[in-house]
Amino acid sequence: MLAGLIKERVDLDFETMFETGVDEMSWDDTENYRMGGSYQWPAVEKVVEYRRTVRNVILKMIQDTPLQLPINMDSPWWALMMGMEHERIHIETSSVLIRQLPISMVTKPEGWVYGPLKHGERVKSNPLITVDVKKVTFGKPINFPSFGWDNEYGQMTCSVPKFEVSKYPITNGQFLKFVQDGGYTNKDYWTAEGWEWRSFREAVHPTFWTCDKGCKSGCGAALASYSHCTPKISNGNGYTNSIPYRYRAMFDEIAMPLDWPVDVNYHEARAYCTWKGPDFRLPTEAEYNAMRGKELPISCGVKCDTMFQEDSTDNNNLRYGSSSPVNMSVPSDLGFHDLYGNVWEWTEDHFNGFKGYESHFLYDDYSSPCFDGRHNIMLNGSWISTGSYGSRFVRVGFRRHFMQHCGFRVARPVTKTKGKVDISVAMVDMEVFVLGVGDQDIPETIDTSKYDLKRCHTSNIQYNFETKAALAGILEQEFGYRDALPCVVAELCRGFTRTYKCGTKSAAWFGAGSGHGPMLLSNTFTDILAVDYSGRFIDTALRLQRGEEVPFTGPDGQQTSAAFTGPCKNVNFKQFTWVPNETGKHNLVVMTFLGRTLKAKAWLVRMWEIIEENGIVVIVSEDETWGRDALTPHLENRLKCVCVQEVPYEKSGGQTVATVTVWSQNC
Predict the structure, then answer these.
(1) Cα separations (Å) of 152 from 3, 102, 405?
(2) Residue 28 DSSP one-character state
(3) Percentage helix, strand, coil, to 5, in the chain?
(4) CB–CB of 430/463 below 8 Å?
(5) Using an 8 Å Cβ cutoff, are 462 and 511 in contact?
(6) What is the pLDDT of residue 665?
(7) pLDDT score at 241
């Protein structure tokens, strides 16, 4: 729809309900109702009917639309690639959920084959391999001829100090020793964040292990009281005295596959490293790239990518319907197994974009909200990773408590010094504000007394506006001057409403900041939606709406305060990182923050769809960056410009001029 390949929505209500992502904001947030209260989910047959209709619409589009090659990021066909690749992600995510359902609720499909329990001799040891000092450069070239997600593009170059790392991912057999040694009950092995998670979940073994003790399952909603760990064992298979655990595969509970990699979250992996010894940790992203040794150069195109190599022995692309023994794949030239596939592997790095990171307008917030210091990078894909998720370039960010088909290796430095050990890990350093919670610290997961960490800025420039300094600046801009920009724009919009007879039932203001502009319009419109991506700004707007005074430093350097005394209860403040369907339609839409968005086009492409038939869009730029000429390529297919004017307003440094354009439907 956003790419212009189809012209009408199939079912707006369903598309509104199903568009929201699933990334939990906290490990105890098992149910997150975005629109307030519990959803009234439609009947399954209605959803199936909708899915079938969507499929037919897409197939007809493919059949009827001339294909223009090459398909690149600027091609409308990129949307089709993105849709198919995103569905592959859903397959993988769903498989993790299926493994948490009761056995009685799932049926193994015909032809589904689990990996062998062992390959040759048992994996009795996991030796460390030394990797010498190496300079590595990684990241996907913008012109590489396959689909990629935004965080894969750009480039990172760094020098990796000499280190040791395990030949295989840690196996179930090796992790069993940690469990039997009381690893889950010894607080000393866990980070503060990890121990909080372990205590909340009451975890005593990995999620996909089962025992006969009735352990807490960790499943949410209707399965909250269900436990996989019950005395009754499915399929007639009991436990043995030697190994008091069994393994939950996709559709069965099976004998513990000791040579398969263990599935754990970051907290469990990190605790194992500490138990292993004081110098052990997880590898970094740069170290993984150093471990890969000799590979075909990127200049070879798709032939260099494991996903496109027919002779690959990697366990991905559903080669098996489970993990497989860690010694089964062909080792790399440096001697490592399973550098791609089998299970994802946790790294110590915070998830972040490479130098030159840019989001894509079709999915502006695919990666960027996760550049917050609370997501760690997972690499290499798993047995059920297909398409781009099985690529050599894949890198995803998951919260440290999240479950995937994910394992880990152990690493440690080789060169010991009297000072701190250099490490190629990247840690995001930023202020974190969570709406409804407040300021949050980024939990430390690396011992800063031992390691010299590389602190870096988040690649999401929008997080720069979650700081106390940014809030002080926006309060000064909005409340520090009699003719501040929101005051001028609100007055202009009242005039535009009369001139263009657009109606006064509903308005939306994107870039609401601390809320002054939308609140000034509250006596003109019946309802107002006020949107910003900054949680700190929205929190302040809500405080002002409640009648609180918010202190800030005025333009003269003196302490003053912002307050709003007029009626504004009809203003609904929302934190959005995109323009969702739940935005609805409005008579007036005001846009004042294009200069501080990641991808302005991502916000502009929805404007035509969220205005009423006679509605108008008012776009304000504090300089000439977003004048008529710059906006036309993004709006001209659906809207036409009916007014351009420059308006004076006050800001720090004196009076200046903003560019204002007005757009209406091009019917």
Answers:
(1) 21, 36, 21
(2) T
(3) 30, 20, 50
(4) yes
(5) no
(6) 87
(7) 53
For the chain, residues with pLDDT lower than 50 are 27, 30-33, 35, 233-239
Residues 263 and 653: their CA atoms lie apart, in Å, by 57
Provide the β-strand partners of residue 440: 432
Cβ contact 356:155 at 8 Å? yes
Look up residue 101 and give its two tokens. 């359902």
DSSP assignments along 313-363, one per residue: --B-TTSSSS---TTSSPP-TTS-S-SSBSSEEEEEEEP-PPBT---BTTB
pLDDT computed for residue 235 by the predictor:
43
Residues counted in the chain: 667
Smallest Cα–Cα separation from 272: which of 372, 346, 214, 359? 346
C-beta atoms surrounding 180 within 10 Å: 12
163/167 Cα distance (integer angstroms): 13
Q: Is 162 helix (H, G, I), strand (E, B) or coil?
A: coil
Find out whether 639 and 607 touch, Cβ atoms under 8 Å.
Answer: yes
Do residues 357 and 459 lie in contact, with contact meaning Cβ atoms separated by under 8 Å?
yes
Does the global pTM surpass 0.85? yes
Q: Give CA angle at 321 (318, 327), nearest 5°.
A: 85
Backbone Cα Rg of the chain: 27
Summary count for the chain: helices (H), strands (E): 13, 25
Query: Measured between alpha carbons, how far is residue 142 from residues 64, 146, 206, 249, 507 in Å?
Result: 29, 10, 39, 38, 39
Strands (E), 483-610: 506-510, 527-532, 550-553, 559-562, 571-575, 586-591
Written as six digits, the tokens of 347 are: 């790294």
Q: CA-CA distance, 656 to 667, in Å (whole number)?
A: 35
Domains and CATH numbers, the chain: 12-98 (no CATH), 103-114+127-360+368-459 (3.90.1580.10), 467-665 (3.40.50.150)
Query: Tell me, what amino acid is at 68?
Result: Q
How many angstroms separate the CA atoms of 199 and 27, rounded?
Answer: 11
Q: At what angle do helices 468-479 and 485-500 cross, to 10 degrees?
A: 60
Question: Do residues 147 and 81 lie in contact, with contact meaning Cβ atoms separated by under 8 Å?
Answer: yes
Model pLDDT, residue 419: 73
First-to-last alpha carbon distance for the chain, in angstroms, is: 18
